[in-house]
Every structure is written in structure tokens, then in C-alpha cells.
Amino acid sequence: MTPQYLPLWTRTGDAFDLVAALPAMKDQPRRSFALMVRDPQSGAELPVWIHALPLLVPQRNQARRRAKRQARRRGRTPRAQTLFLSEWVLVLTTLSPQELSAEDILELYRIRWQIELAFKRFKSLAGLDMLPAKKPELARAWIYARLIVAIIAEQIAGQVPDSSPSGPGIIIRKPIALASHEDSPGHDLRRHSWTNPVANRLQPLQPNPSSPL
Description:
By secondary structure, the protein is an alpha+beta fold. The protein is built from six helices and five strands, in the order ββαββααβααα.
């Protein structure tokens, strides 16, 4: 979540400054806040919980570097608030801690993040973000073929890179990246040489748009 774009309120109706509240718990493993969000038009209120997890020092430094790099690409100077928030994992949920604990929610978010990174790798490696086929049968066959080759390439390349958010005590492995993407801690890594021949073989799989299929 991004606090500057989502006004937060305490359960008593006062404005809540998450950036001011976080430094007090930086040495704690995690913390939860019981808050509310409001519909700006109707004023309807919704109870929410924010679970905050401070990143480990190496991850914090990496996150700050990534935030600065992204700001430079836009020709901007990153704000102090942006750099500070990059050092945290912030998850907003409507589930109370009694329904699902903060620890479980953060672990589920970590798993979800790995799935998102897998899709990004597949898009980069197999070109799944561009679908040239129009007919459902051809599109399905094209996607299946690319997914199979991408999975094989990933098995050849080695381990899947671990990624933020990782909880305290989790060892970050040195990954072999299939393809770089700016949201991954392995962004500066490049595709493993073993995957290049496999990725290059994907090019003949491009269907002919004029094909009668």
C-alpha cells in the first residue's frame, strides 16, 4: 500500500500519520494498526488493519537504491518520505487479527510476491505480454508452448531468486536471474547464458497472422 495516496483514520476518527508512527517500532519484528478508510464522496467508513514489517538492513539499502534509480529515470529527486517507506513492507487488509494473524498475512503476501515475480519472468523470457494469435485455439496453443519452454528454461537456469518481502531470519540466496526487471532485488543481474539458446528458439513459435488457423 502507499499511505500518501490513501488517507488513514484512527477508530476514533482522528487523522493517522503512518510515517510518523513507524519509526517508534523500527526495532520490533512487526506491528499492526487498527484503522479506518473513508469513501471521499459518501463518507462511508471501512475498518482496516495495516501490518508493518521493517526490512532487514541489506534489503533496506537495496530498496533505497531502487527508489533512487526509479526517481532518476523520471528526472526527479526522491522525497525523504518515499525513501523511508521503501524500507518497509506495508500490507492493508480488512481481515482482523482474530481472523488471520499478521504473521500469516505477511507470509501469504511474501508467497504472492513470488508468484508475481514468476509472471514477470515469464513475460520477459517467453514474451507472454504480447499475444499475436487472435483465434482462441491458436492463442491457447501459443501460450502453452511458451509456458512449457519458459518452465524448462527456469529449471535449467537454477534456483528461483528469493525476494522482498522476506521476514527476519530468512536467508537471501544469491540468485541466477533469468531476466532482469526493476522490481526485483536481482534487477542488476542479467539472463543466465544457458537460457539464451532456449529463449532464442522461441522466436520461430511466432504464428503467422495471416494463417487460416
